[in-house]
Amino acid sequence: MDRVCLVTGGGSGIGKAICKKVANEGAKVIVADLLLEKAEMVSDEIRSEGGEAVPIQVDVTQFLDVKQMVQKAENVFDRIDVLVNNAGWSSVESFLESNESTWDKEIDINLKGVLYTCKTVLPIMMKQGYGKVINISSEAGVVGAASKVVYSAAKGGVISFTKALAREMARHNITVNSISPGVTKTPLLNELESGKPGLIAKLEKLVPLRRLAEPEDIANTVCLFASYEGDYITGQTLSVSGGITMN
Ligand code: NAD
Known about the structure:
By secondary structure, this protein is an alpha/beta fold. It is built from nine helices and seven strands; from the N terminus they run βαβαβαβαβααβαααβ. The chain has helices at 13-24, 36-48, 63-77, 100-128, 139-143, 149-169, 187-195, 199-205, 215-226; strands at residues 4-8, 28-33, 52-57, 82-85, 131-136, 174-181, 237-240. It has a seven-stranded parallel β-sheet, with helices on both faces. Strand 2, helix 2 (36-48) and strand 3 form a beta-alpha-beta unit. Helix 1 packs parallel to helix 2, helix 3 (63-77) runs parallel beside helix 4 (100-128) and helix 4 packs parallel to helix 6 (149-169). The two termini are 30 Å apart. The relative contact order is 0.14. The structure holds nicotinamide-adenine-dinucleotide. InterPro entries: NAD(P)-bd_dom_sf, Sc_DH/Rdtase_CS, SDR, SDR_fam. It comes from Brevibacillus brevis. This is SDR family NAD(P)-dependent oxidoreductase. It holds the Pfam family adh_short. Belongs to the short-chain dehydrogenases/reductases (SDR) family.
């Protein structure tokens, strides 16, 4: 993959797997994360394996921060072919117990952050006459998740935004798609399992394919959308959830 990929939230979990996978396929990667040391660790790993990566600190909820990140990325690699909006966060609490500050945080990171990066990166892709935007949504945004109500709304917003933006961008040869992971085995889930032994086994029983997603399952799907083979796919939401959602 002879491309420059910018991945937000690239320092951990699914984002880290995406950075490593696209680098392994030959892409030059910008590992962008709120926590610079995590982005640096992922970049170092990629470079030690012979790949090309640059860490950049960013808070996707701050428009100015996003503009500075994109400027830095453009200065280093001169172009951005693939934007992966992966940074995300959710609380776990019932809607009636939740409050406005959590709603703002969930909407700002999961939805507004995607608007900021797209607003900044799309003009670059338009100049190039080519680009791919891949938004990491969630099955919560497709079917809804109890105790993650506002997160579900924000991720549902990402899915609708993806479709509408895909229509506007098609004439510029830019595709916009989203991926909805099911429950994925990230460090956070392993932490939850240590507090609640048996949680993973219980969740696995709900999945037709009888296992939870590995971060690499999501990364593989990003590669499909990011590759030349995916050039004719736009405005789609692909559930990568072992069959929990079947459209
Ligand atoms: P994670 O917490 O392991 O990683 C998220 C990364 O985003 C972290 O490195 C964090 O520092 C970074 N980040 C957080 N806020 C940021 C901000 N404001 N600006 C920049 N970076 C920020 O999470 P994950 O489980 O790997 O999730 C990745 C994406 O996948 C998220 O969008 C999440 O909503 C989505 N998702 C995850 C699951 C799952 O089960 N893990 C399921 C469905 C969807």
